[in-house]
Design goal:
The complex is a heterodimer.
Chain A: E1 2-10, E2 19-25, E3 29-36, H1 44-62, H2 70-91, E4 102-108, E5 111-117, E6 121-126, E7 129-133, H3 139-145, H4 151-156, E8 176-177, E9 181-182, E10 188-192, H5 194-197, H6 202-208, H7 214-229, E11 236-243, E12 257-258, E13 268-271, H8 286-303
Antiparallel strand pairs in A: 1-11, 1-12, 2-3, 2-13, 3-4, 4-5, 5-8, 5-9, 6-7, 6-10, 10-11
Chain B: E1 14-15, E2 18-26, E3 30-36, E4 42-48, H1 70-89, E5 98-104, E6 107-113, E7 117-119, H2 120-126, H3 133-152, E8 165-168, E9 173-175, H4 214-230, H5 237-242, H6 249-252, H7 259-268, H8 280-291, H9 297-312
Helix pairs in contact in B: 3-8, 4-7, 7-8
The chains are: A alpha+beta, B alpha+beta.
Chain lengths: ~300, ~325
């Protein structure tokens, strides 16, 4: 298998990040998971963490080095995560269960299999177009599909964040599966939370990632989405993979991963938890110092406003 | 080369809107003062002043920064900003609150809330070997809430130890001194050596530091709990690699503390980070589970079925 992968999760304007993302791969299979813990319910970030962790753990056990049935794997993994969240709520006697969306994708033998519950999305992009995508499990999606409202109305509809399927709810999740989808060289599979798709329309994503350069393109898109989201913006997370296996000649992109060097039992896991940036940048200029201080002060005002009279 | 200590700003010094009362602590990177704000509230002010790079002589206000250290001084300032940035976003009862940040005297200052109390270090020194399980559970359960908040901001504390755990008068803990905290754990600057405290620093703190993670703070939590029981710091992690003479808590205090608590301490103190709790959440879970009574598991669903039959009859 050969691919280039990029993942990042940003907090946006929120006080905490309830999104969790992870990818792992063995020699023959790749798993990507994105989960968006639901605010409004307590411990959203725990639900999303459990979802990501459960799927990653299952993958590590079962991808030896390939999965016997990827759809079965996704189904079982998401149900396991669902039960694990309910167990957590029970054990801690939570009045309400934590909930999370989940979208997960397996690529094996250059065939993609995905499943989702909720409104975190997967797009398959090819030649600057959206070839396939998930349908959100939201009321707004149904209204749109039935032609009752327009896309423009949907963008501001009060119910746009309401979803009817997720992991962790007392009702069993509705998990929707894709078809087996063969990938071609240069295809981009992008999984993201609503923080990203709410700001950037799918066609724009497809256009911008046309060249398959996910390492440069995706962080730029994230930056833009974060800027548009502004101080009230949602958490935004993404995993994007550019598939570089082809039935023809293999390409040599920088930063790509080749799994041929992995042992059969070996698995690489990347759970986005603690970012690591590059080394120290150049010296601070006067301006940068002032800017840093201004930024810290505004953060203090935002998160720890001084009480009046203090 | 012997390092001279920096001189603190004098008592009564007016630093912007704050009036310095006295020095609280002096570290390698900073001086912390107790000061009073215009409303009369006490605050702690941390002054960025790395010993090795900037020197303030007696009676001076502005530190002297030699030309050749200018770059490193600014780099360190960036780290200080990172600490400020990180703390500013954290709003948690068990994490120190930052209330202001400003520039003066050619350096930068971070103003934090101040409360009466003492550090866990001082508490241990006062009650050597007699810290109760109840007290420990109370302090650490709350402390872990704070640490979880820190980790959820993609930040590691990296210098957890009893002297960085502050106890308010009601014994609720507050995490202080995020001077070692880094979001970016990349390069070691030759001059600004990463700091850590022997005994409390995890094995990952030594060497390339690429394996630092939540589990590293968890090692330090384990070491702090061990210190509560022992009255002194456990053997340093790098020495344990050479020759591990650390007596497992389970062996040393069997019967004095609950088995579960002792197990947890030993679990956190595993040299191999893969064998430790991987997240604060996992550790909290263990701490909470321990106080729960044994479950009467099968009675649950079996009982229910039996109940159903009974009803049907």
């Amino acid at each position: 298998m050969k691919f280039t992968i990029y993942q990042d999760s940003r907090q946006g304007g929120r006080s905490n990040n309830e999104d969790r993302i992870s990818y792992c791969y063995s020699r023959d299979a790749l798993l990507m998971v994105v989960a968006d813990g639901m605010g409004g319910h307590h411990y959203g970030e725990i639900a999303s963490q459990i979802a990501v962790q459960t799927l990653a753990d299952n993958f590590q056990r079962q991808a030896r080095p390939s999965l016997s049935d990827p759809f079965h794997f996704l189904h079982e993994g998401m149900l396991n995560a669902h039960s694990a969240i309910l167990d957590f709520a029970l054990r801690h006697r939570l009045p309400d269960t934590p909930r999370t969306t989940c979208v997960a994708c397996i690529v094996q033998d250059s065939i993609a299999y995905w499943a989702h519950a909720g409104d975190s999305r997967l797009y398959l992009l090819r030649d600057g177009k959206v070839l396939a995508r998930t349908r959100d499990h939201s009321r707004i999606r149904i209204l749109l599909d039935e032609g009752l409202i327009s896309e423009a109305m949907a963008a501001t509809h009060p119910d746009r964040n309401k979803i009817y399927s997720c992991l962790g709810s007392p009702n069993a999740p509705e998990i929707e599966f894709s078809r087996k989808t063969p990938l071609e060289q240069g295809d981009v599979v992008l999984l993201c939370t609503d923080g990203l798709w709410g700001e950037i329309p799918p066609d724009t994503l497809a256009q911008r990632l046309r060249d398959g350069n996910v390492l440069d393109g995706v962080p730029r898109l994230l930056g833009e989405a974060e800027a548009t989201g502004g101080p009230q913006g949602d958490n935004l997370s993404v995993i994007a993979v550019c598939w570089e296996d082809s039935y023809g000649s293999p390409s040599d992109a920088d930063g790509s991963v080749s799994t041929q060097t992995l042992e059969i039992g070996e698995i690489e896991t990347h759970i986005e938890e603690f970012g690591r940036d590059g080394g120290p940048r150049k010296d601070l200029s006067e301006e940068e110092i002032e800017q840093a201080i201004a930024e810290i002060r505004s953060t203090i005002d935002k998160f720890n406003p001084r009480k009046p009279g203090q | 080369m012997a390092q001279q200590a920096n001189h603190a700003l004098p008592s009564g010094f007016q630093l912007e809107e704050y009036s310095i009362e006295r020095q609280l602590s002096l570290g390698g990177f900073s001086i912390v003062y107790l000061a009073i704000d215009p409303a009369g509230t006490r605050v702690a002010i941390k002054e960025y002043l790395p010993n090795s790079l900037a020197l303030r002589g007696e009676g001076e206000i502005k530190p002297c920064i030699p030309e050749e250290h200018q770059g490193a001084f600014l780099y360190g300032m960036k780290c200080f900003f990172e600490e400020g940035r990180a703390l500013a976003r954290l709003s948690h009862p068990n994490v120190i609150r930052v209330v202001n940040f400003f520039r003066a005297n050619d350096t930068v200052y971070m103003v934090m809330e101040y409360e009466r109390g003492r550090t866990l270090q001082e508490f241990i020194a006062k009650h050597p070997g007699t810290v109760s399980e109840r007290f420990m559970r109370g302090v650490f359960a709350r402390l872990l809430n704070g640490l979880r908040e820190v980790h959820s901001h993609k930040l590691l504390h990296l210098d957890l130890k009893p002297s960085n755990i502050y106890l308010r008068q009601d014994n609720t803990p507050v995490l202080i001194d995020f001077g070692a905290a880094r979001q970016t754990l990349s390069t070691d600057q030759p001059i600004l050596k990463p700091m850590y405290t022997p005994g409390f620093a995890s094995p990952e703190h030594y060497g390339s530091r690429k394996d630092l993670g939540p589990w590293s703070d968890i090692y330090s939590i384990g070491a702090s709990m061990y210190a509560c029981m022992a009255g002194a710091a456990p053997q340093a992690a790098n020495e344990r690699y050479e020759k591990d003479v650390l007596v497992p808590a389970m062996k040393r205090w069997e019967g004095k503390y609950s088995d579960r608590l002792l197990e947890i301490v030993d679990w956190c103190l595993n040299l191999n980070h893969y064998y430790r709790p991987q997240s604060v959440f996992a550790l909290q879970k263990a701490l909470v589970e321990a106080v729960e009574e044994p479950e009467q598991k099968s009675a649950g669903w079996l009982g229910r079925i039996v109940g159903k039959f009974a009803k049907a009859q």
